[in-house]
Write a structure and sequence with these properties.
By secondary structure, the protein is mostly helical. Helices cover about 75% and strands about 0% of the residues.
């Protein structure tokens, strides 16, 4: 009979499980020092315990030493996933902030449509919308320019926005709810 390699000690012996449970606090401190967050450390340790129990792997050395390697690898994997997610978010933020002309065109289309609809409102509402929403004036500056109080100007712009919202809903129907910027809707009468 040829020489057979000795079977490695199974990880899931009752002594191995007891050793893991007995060292839980040390495992948690080990991971928390590396990730800087108690809740995340608890999650990583818990996931490592579950994987260990589910996999039923065998080990040749100390259960505790082996589990520290599992935790170290889990921390590294978590940091890599987080770095990858951070890079994707940075790329998305850069893409959204790049102003590649798409948002400028959407603004032009929306402003043309809304400008047409604003012309159907009471003249003081249309004027308030043009100066504050399109022109970028503050409510206080608008009030001073038109000779009314800031409170009155605030009420006027609120009512103008409401009137415009109703006019957009009348003109564009469901498109107004979903953000459609096709502007082929029925024009106001």
């Amino acid at each position: 009979m040829p020489d057979e390699a000795p079977d490695p000690t199974p990880l899931l012996t009752s002594e191995g499980v007891a050793a893991l449970v007995a060292n839980h606090r040390e495992f948690l401190r080990f991971v928390e020092r590396r990730v800087g967050n108690r809740a995340l450390a608890e999650e990583i340790v818990q996931d490592a315990f579950v994987r260990t129990l589910e996999q039923g792997e065998t080990i040749r050395d100390s259960v505790v030493g082996w589990f520290y390697r599992v935790l170290r690898n889990a921390v590294i994997d978590r940091q890599r996933r987080q770095a990858s997610a951070d890079r994707r978010l940075d790329e998305l933020a850069a893409e959204l902030g790049s102003g590649d002309g798409v948002s400028d065109e959407l603004s032009r289309i929306a402003c043309a449509c809304v400008g047409t609809l604003a012309g159907t409102l009471k003249p003081e509402y249309a004027d308030a919308l043009r100066q504050i929403e399109v022109g970028g004036a503050t409510v206080k500056d608008y009030a001073a320019a038109t000779g009314i109080s800031a409170g009155n100007a605030g009420v006027r712009i609120f009512r103008a926005r409401e009137a415009l919202r109703k006019q957009v809903a009348r003109s564009c129907g469901t498109c107004a709810e979903h953000g459609c910027l096709d502007c082929t809707c029925a024009q106001p009468e």
